[in-house]
Design brief:
- This protein folds into two domains: about 160 residues, Rossmann fold (3-Layer(aba) Sandwich), CATH 3.40.50; about 120 residues, N-(1-d-carboxylethyl)-l-norvaline Dehydrogenase, domain 2 (Orthogonal Bundle), CATH 1.10.1040.10.
- Helices cover about 55% and strands about 15% of the residues.
- Strands 3-2-1-4-5-6 form a six-stranded parallel beta sheet, sandwiched between helices. It has a three-stranded mixed beta sheet with strand order 7-8-9.
C-alpha cells in the first residue's frame, strides 16, 4: 500500500510539536513526512526525528498529498499557498492551521480550486502542550472530500477533530472558542484586582481557579444546548440554568458590592450581572418575578 505523504510548513512553537507527532507516525511506518521552515534549527530537529527536509514550499508541495500550514498570519498563508499552487496537482489537500481572518479560508479555497487543490481551514486549540501531547482540538471547515483527505493526518495531531462545516467554519469555531478564552482572561484580571484589594494571595486564587475548573469544566460546563434561543419553561435546561442564574446573580451581586466597598472598578462583573439571565436563555429577574 502506498504511504500517505504529508508535508508541514511552519515549525514554530506549536507547529514544531505538531510536526513531531507526525514524525512519530513516520517512524512507525504510517506515513512519509517532509517539512519546510525558514529557520534551520527546527528543520534539523525534524530530520533527526525521521522527516525529510525540503528546500522550498514548492519542492515540498510537489512531493506530498496533504500539506499542513502553521505560519504566522494571513499574508504568510497566502504566500505559502501561492508557492504550493504553482506545482501542486489535483491530489493535494492543504490544511491551514493558522488562525486567519474569517473571510480568508473561502477566498483561498476558491483560488486553490482553480488549480484542482482542496483546502480546509483547521485551526487548533490546546497550545504547545496539547501539540506536544497530540491532544489538540482541531476544528475543520471544508467539503466532506477535503476533510476526509486531511483527517488521517489531523487525527495524529489532535485527540478531538471536529468537522465544523463548510470552508471557513473551522475558523469561525476557533474565533468563538477564543472569544470566551480571552474574555475569561480579562475577567480573571478583574478578579485579581478585587482579590488584591481585599488582601488575598493572588497565586493561591489562581490555584483554586485551576483546581475547580478542572472539576467543573469551567465556562464550558454550561455549553450543552444546540441553540442560543430563549428557553421554554418546560425545557429540561430551564430549571438547571435558573439555578445557575440564581447562584450567579447572588455571587456577582456580592462581588460587585465588595468591589464598591474597596473602590475597585469591575465593569465585566456588572455586565455579567445584567447579561447572565438572558445569555442563559432565561427571562431577567424582573421578568421572572
Amino acid at each position: 500500500m502506498t504511504l500517505r505523504r504529508v508535508g508541514f510548513v511552519g515549525l514554530g512553537n506549536i507547529g514544531r510539536p505538531m510536526a513531531l507527532r507526525l514524525a512519530e507516525a513516520a517512524q512507525r511506518g504510517e506515513l512519509e513526512l517532509s517539512v519546510y521552515d525558514v529557520a534551520p534549527g527546527p528543520v534539523a530537529e525534524l530530520e533527526a526525528a525521521g522527516a525529510k527536509a525540503a528546500g522550498s514550499v514548492a519542492e515540498l508541495a510537489g512531493r506530498v498529498d496533504v500539506l499542513c500550514v502553521m505560519v504566522r498570519d494571513d499574508d504568510q498563508v497566502r504566500e505559502v499557498l501561492g508557492e504550493a499552487l504553482g506545482v501542486a496537482g489535483d491530489r493535494l489537500t492543504v490544511a491551514i492551521h493558522s488562525t486567519v481572518a474569517p473571510a480568508t479560508p473561502a477566498a483561498l479555497a476558491d483560488t486553490a480550486a482553480r488549480h484542482g487543490v482542496k483546502v480546509v481551514d483547521a485551526p487548533v486549540s490546546g497550545g504547545s502542550m496539547g501539540a506536544a501531547a497530540g491532544t489538540l482540538a482541531i476544528m475543520v471547515g471544508g467539503t466532506d472530500e477535503a476533510f476526509e483527505a486531511a483527517r488521517p493526518a489531523l487525527e495524529l495531531m489532535g485527540s478531538k477533530v471536529v468537522h465544523a462545516g463548510p470552508i471557513g467554519a473551522g475558523t469561525s469555531f476557533k474565533l468563538a472558542r477564543n472569544l470566551m478564552h480571552f474574555v475569561a482572561f480579562t475577567a480573571a484580571t478583574e478578579a485579581q484586582r478585587l482579590a488584591e484589594a481585599a488582601g488575598l494571595d493572588l497565586k493561591a486564587l489562581g490555584e483554586v481557579v485551576r483546581h475547580t475548573d478542572a472539576i467543573t469544566g469551567g465556562p464550558g460546563a454550561i455549553m450543552h444546548r444546540d441553540t442560543a434561543a430563549p428557553l421554554d419553561p418546560d425545557d429540561f435546561w430551564f430549571a438547571v440554568f435558573d439555578h445557575v442564574r440564581a447562584l450567579g446573580e447572588k455571587d456577582l451581586g456580592f462581588a460587585v458590592d465588595l468591589a464598591d466597598r474597596l473602590g475597585v472598578d469591575v465593569p465585566l462583573a456588572r455586565e455579567a450581572l445584567a447579561r447572565l439571565a438572558p445569555g442563559l436563555g432565561l427571562p431577567t429577574t424582573e421578568e421572572h418575578s
